[in-house]
Structure formats: C-alpha cells, structure tokens
Amino acid sequence: MSVIPARYPFTAVVGQDRLKLALILSAISPGIGGVLIRGEKGTAKSTIVRGLGPVAGGRVVELPIGATEDRVVGSLDLTGVLREGRADFTPGLLAQADGGVLYIDEVNLLADHLVDVLLDAAASGRVTIERDGVSHTQAADFVLVGTMNPEEGELRPQLLDRFGLAVDVVAAPDVDERVEIISRRMEFDADPGAFAQRYAADEDTLRSRIAAARAAVRQVSLPVAQLRRIAGICAHLGVDGLRGDIVVARAAAAHAAWRGAGAVDTDDVAVAVELALPHRRRRDPFDDSGFTDEQLDEAMQAGDEAAGPEEPEPDPDGDGPDDGGPGGGEDSGPIGDGPVIGDDSPGDRAEPQPDTGAQSSPAPAGALFGTRSSGAPRRMRPLKAAGIGDGDPGRRSRARSTRGATTHAVDFETGRPLHLFGTVLAAAGRTASDGRGAARLTLVTDDLRGAQRVGREGNLVVFVVDLSGSMTARRRLTAVSELCVDLLRDSYTRRDRVAVVTARGSAALVSVPPTRSVELAVRRLAEVRTGGRTPLAEGLLAATEVIDGAARREPQRRPLLVVLTDGRATAGPDAPRRAAAAAAGIARRGIASVVVDCEQGMIRLGMAHELAARLGAQCLTLDELTPAALHRSALRRPGGIVAPRRAS
Known about the structure:
Layout: H1 17-28, E1 35-39, H2 45-56, E2 60-62, H3 69-73, E3 74-76, H4 78-84, E4 89-91, H5 93-96, E5 101-104, H6 112-124, E6 126-131, E7 134-139, E8 143-148, H7 157-162, E9 165-169, H8 175-190, H9 192-198, H10 200-216, H11 224-237, H12 243-258, H13 266-276, H14 293-307, E10 383-385, E11 393-401, E12 405-411, H15 420-433, E13 449-457, E14 460-466, H16 474-493, E15 497-504, E16 507-515, H17 518-526, H18 536-553, E17 559-565, H19 575-588, E18 592-597, H20 607-615, E19 618-621, H21 627-636, E20 641-643
Parallel strand pairs: 1-8, 1-9, 2-5, 5-8, 10-20, 14-15, 14-17, 17-18, 18-19
Antiparallel strand pairs: 3-4, 6-7, 11-13, 12-13, 15-16
GO molecular function, one term: ATP binding
Domain VWFA: 460-596
Region (Disordered): 301-407
C-alpha cells in the first residue's frame, strides 16, 4: 500500500507560469534571494510553494506568523540546565531551514521583532543567539519565499529588498482554465495517491532539469554587453543601491541555464528584469509596485543604449545551445500549460480592485478630495495612546512585549524571556531563609523569574476627516490633503491598522474599514467627494462604531482617534449640541483622541479647540505638525503628544 502524499504536485498546477518560473530560478541559483508572491486569496500561492521542495531537492520549512522568537531562532533547554547542568541548545526554524526553503505565509503580518531576526539571518547565512550570557551560532542559509495579500498591508522596505524576485498573481479569468483547475483539485481530493502517481513522471523530469541547470549555472557566461545592459536598465529605472543589478544578473544566468544555454542573452535579461525590479522601484508605500509594458520597453531601450552595438547574429542554420540538449527551448518542460513568460499570461493582467464594502456618498456630488503628497516623506509628530498596552508589536504606543527594555522581574511563563538577575536573587533569598547564608547557591524551578519588557505596539488609528464646504477652500483643501497622506504614511511605518470616516453633507460614511493597507486607504480617500454641510456628530458616532467593531476582532489593539476638522457642526437640527454630546461620550469611554485644527486665516473661531476639550484630547494646528514645530515641541515637552485617557 503506497503512502498518500500530503502535497499537491508542482507540475499539476494549472497556469501561474510566471510564479513557477520565479521559484524554479531561485532553486537553480539560491543566491537570487528567494521570491515574494503577492496576490489575492485562493490563487494557489501556498500550493505551488509547498510543491517546490520535492522537485528542487530541498525541504520546505514553514514559519508561522505567530511563532515565538525562541521557536524561530532556537533556545536553551532550561530543563536540561536545571536537572543535569547541561547547556543543550534546541535549534529553531531558521536553522532547520538551512539548505532548503523557508516559507512564510502572510509574511507582511510577521511581527517586527521576527522580521529583524529574519533580516539578520538572510544577510549573514547564520543565526546567532546572544542572550543572558549565552552565545550560540548555527548555519541558516535558505531560500526565502513569502506570500502576502497586499490588502493586509505592505512589507517593511528592508524585508522587501531581501526578496530577489517578486510576482503578482491573480485568479485565472479564462473559463476553461478555471474548469481545469477545479477538476484537478477534485481529483486530488478524491485520491491523492493516484493523482500524484499520474504526475510522477513529470515531477521526475522537472527534478532532473532543475538539477542539471543548477550544476550548469556557474559555467554560464555573462558578456560585458549584457552587464552594461543590466546596469543601464537599473539606472534608468532609478533602482536604489546595487542589489537589484546583482539579482538581475543572477536571475538572467539562471534563466540561461534553465533553457540549456551557455551564455546570457537579451531575452534572459528581459525575463530577469520583469521578475526582479518592479518591487525595487518603490520609494514610498503609496508608489505603484510594478511597471507598465511601456515602462519596460523604455527601460530595455535604455539598456540597449548602454550595451552598445550588438554583435552579429549567429548563423540560424548552425547548431547552438538552444537547438537541443538538456532543457531544450524556453517553453519546454512540464511546469505549466502555456509559455513561461507571455503577454497573455494571468500574471500580466490587471488585478481587480478589492471591494471593502464602503458606502456610496450620501451627499450630492462635489469636487474630488484627492490625495496630494507633500513630496518627500515628512517626519510626523508622534501621536500615541497613554499607558501601556498589550497589542501587536508596532512602533506607536508603549506596550508589554517579549522585546524592548526590561523593566522588572515577574513570574516565569513559557515563552517569556528569563530575568537572570531576578532568578539569582530569588535563589539567594530562598537560601538565606533556610539559614544557609554561606552555603553554595542552588537553583530550583521555583526560582525562575521572567523579564517584563516594554516595547511598542501598533494601534487602530481611526481618522475622521471633515470634507464639508467650510473645509474645501483651495489652500485649506491642499493642506489637509497633504496632511492626510503624511498621517497615513506615518501609520504605515508604525505598523498600525487604519480606518477612515469622512463627514460631509448630511451623514458620515466609512470610506475605509479597518485595514493594514494604507495604500488602499489613500486610494479610497482620493475618490471621496467634498462639499456640503458638516455632520460632525455623525462622523464621531461612526468612528465609535468602527472602534467597537474592531475591538471584537482584536480586543488587545488600542484605538487612537484623529479628527481633522475646523470644529464647525452645521448638519441637521441642533448640530453643535449633538456634536458636543458625541465628543463627551468618547471622552467618558477613555478613547485616546487628537484633534487637528484645520482652520486657517487671520480670523479663527477656535471651535476645534472646544471640540478637543470635550474629547479630552490634545489639539494641534496644521503648522504644529511640521518638522520645525517638532523641534520646538521637543524643547518644551519631551516625549511627544500623549492623548489622555479617562476612566469610563
């Protein structure tokens, strides 16, 4: 009786040829740096990655996003230390992935402290543990493969740059292809063993071809003209640093080896550029992550100019490396049902925009709010919630965490770092209480103390943006638009979730429900209309509903309410009183709030300050969020702005 495999065969996956090629090139030349797979749910991302290991000759180790740091880097066996005095080290997932593939599903949701560890290991090929006087180093040379849904937020730039190749995947729009996908999946679910046997020959062929290409890639020549072409393309696209140039060169050589050629040609470079450079052009979280066919053509033309005159074409009747031998032509090999890179492949089509469930505007159509960048990213004044929370790691408010500054010793729990000094003090106190003050210090399990550390957490930042007619004077609208982009950009860097409530006309609407994708928030906000009266009470109430709904899903994530308004409430009967009541209700609940006063001009009514007083919030003007104001504030009141919390 044969053993039923748990994996879906790599060669049985329909379509996604661009993704499969990227994974194969990384297996041929691990120095490329792995693959980042961006796409919506249900596009076979995980299935393809898990099927790579057997055909690439290495194991696939999965790193859960909720893993503890000790599980990732390894740890000492405390039981062995206490019982037998042996300092045995238990390897973590990074060491287990040495020589294979480290796979992280939803890599953009990985905690920041694990990202730091991952970056160190990816850069050095080793994992080093320095903790409580113990030092240990193990090899951790792996191919990094990550999947992510862009709607859940982007990667930190440092981690994004560590991925050699990046591929955007979408579901197949072709009906026949979708039918074939469903049919194969149902066959696999009905009898995995028989299904795997059906593709066994294709798997063996692909395994042999990858092995042959891996053996040959070091002998592939890279002509100077192609090196100049690569450098010219990267310079034209404004790629930061030289890692992009190196990755393109390695990927082009791997592609040449994959098709059985002895030298890199222009087609190899074009394939490598398409896979290795789109994600390296982003300098801002709101920049597009790819480039169009026109941009690619322009870049290739720049490369042609840098490469200089082309050498004479070889005799088409002669025998060249592309005419036969292992690997045959570019399209040979059982890795898909279409060309490896083609103009009509599913990966080339525009990704449909996600539906966030945002309501349509309740007010008559006005001018688009738009979102205007202030240019280079500006450092924003730190807004944070008071006290110490327990939310997910981030960079905004203080929180208890497994990393950060140690504050004191607490009871020891599994997964909590050891407080060495507190443990020794507990053992010394027990020895003294036994009347053995001069006796040799002994350590028992009850003496263990954990370290309480304080780091930073990400918050739920809910923006209430007043888009009424009083806010839409040209100068003010431009200033508020730029400020919104800067605040959202700041939330991106601090690893927050964000939501946007817009108030105009007679009602407020949730333009962006809570999301990690600040890019999505900017895009949605740009499409909102402006003008009409100011439903300020409705905006505040809508924000509290957003906060309540998010609390049911993530009870540990603390909210921060940021209201951008001139403070006028004009929509509906008794509008000022209702706005004051809504603000007072938020203050009673202790929700951390900040009011940004958008009023400008010589004559100011000061209504935003009155709103801030009712919210129990700090009130800032637009000018006070500038870098110059930051410097002045630091001299007067170090520590940033802390929105006060009141007991409910």
